Amino acid sequence: MKKNIFLCPSLLFLVISVSIVISCGGTTQQPTDVELLGSIENAFVNVAKRSTPAIVGITTFRQAEDPRFRRQEGSGFIFRGDGYILTNEHVIRDSTVIRVRLLDESVYEAKLVGTDPNTDIAVLKIDAPETLPVLPLANSEAVQVGQFAIAIGNPFQLNHTVTIGTVSGKGRSFLPDRGIVRYQDFIQTDAWINVGNSGGPLLNIHGEVIGINSLIRRPDNTPATNAVRAGAGFAISSNLVEKIGTQLIAKGRIIRGYLGIGMEEVPQGIRVLRVSRNMPAHLSGLQRGDIIIGYNGKKVADSDEFKMWIADSQVGKESKITVLRNGHERMFNVTIGEMPALLAGRPVETDSVAWHELGIRVRKLEKGDAERYTYLTEDDRGVIVLDAVQVNSQIPRGTLITAINGQRITSTQELEAFLQKKQELNEIILDIKSKHGTEKITVPLKR
């Protein structure tokens, strides 16, 4: 015991001596300002060199009376080595032809895999002869305000333009819904982006994608020309991009849950401003003025977060919503519906025979529907009712039609063909499946 106590001062002296030597040696080896700047510069150069092979230029062509507006330029990046590319939905909107240009100047005709106007994300696919380089996605939750941000894209058709700045802010959400429901999680940056950068990546210092450059916001009084737009840049966060991109590749479209309310944030939670008739919230008993404070046991405080929870909920699933009504807590069981096509940014077909004769719009049952509708299985076949012209329709939204007058139906074309041929009928019998089970219903035709 005494021996150990005696050795401690010697050991302490040795540690201090070594530390002083290391410290002194380190002081003489500190890099100069130029060397430090050169190291930072090399880091940016290396990110650009590694990343540009996976960044693409996108040219779209659309029908327009004015030839000047038939062509549009944008950017994108390779998400998977087998040719899947991520970009903005607004870059390829209404396009009849989409071309993708790689770093080696090779050009491919791209197939549109799927779009999601609610988040402004789209997925393209090209068939290249070999595996393509990809950009890894970072965890955008770990992104810090103040860290470096590197934007690479094709502004003004200037391919692979690199600009550098910082992350100026996170969790930005400011676009109004205006016809479609917006799901927003923007990263703000002062890295210069402009027309043609849309769809390109915003990178961190490791060359990982932290977001897709999507838009520029400027005050109305900011001077700008038609060519150059001044203002802050915003990129869709990589976590949202990965979730939507993966679903579009798997299913071709996004099926979202829907309540059918207007809302605003208040100190206690979220106040219900309006309730749409015959929608899930209305059918469950929610009322204007209710303050939502809980959703399936989770506290509700942020409207964007709440919208995401609803959107990610399974269609047909019963969820528990807790509200304050006249100062008292009440709980409601709400069966989540599917977001209407118009609010999801999809076109609404009102010229179909099904719309005129049955008062409904339908689509073919798609891969993945069984994961979203609790009452469906992978073995089911038929057409899903997207919308009904009447509030109290016998065939409400979300109903699966499997047969008409005993004839199996597997596509919208088969349903339309049957209705066109059977002009002499005044009513038909439908086999349907819904949250209430399977049943046969008699439906009058609008002759």
Number of helices: 9
- Structural class designation: alpha+beta
Q: What is the second-level CATH architecture of the largest domain?
A: Beta Barrel
Compute the number of strand runs.
27
* First-residue to last-residue Cα separation: 105 Å
- Quaternary state reads single chain
Domains (count): 3
- What level of helicity do the residues show? 10-25%
Q: Major sheet: size, sense and barrel closure?
A: 7 strands, antiparallel
Strand content: 25-35%
CATH fold type of the largest domain: Thrombin, subunit H
User: Can you list the strand order of the major beta sheet?
Assistant: 5-4-1-2-3-7-6
Radius of gyration: 28 Å
The level 1 CATH classification of the largest domain is Mainly Beta
Shape: globular
Low-confidence stretches: 1-26, 221-228
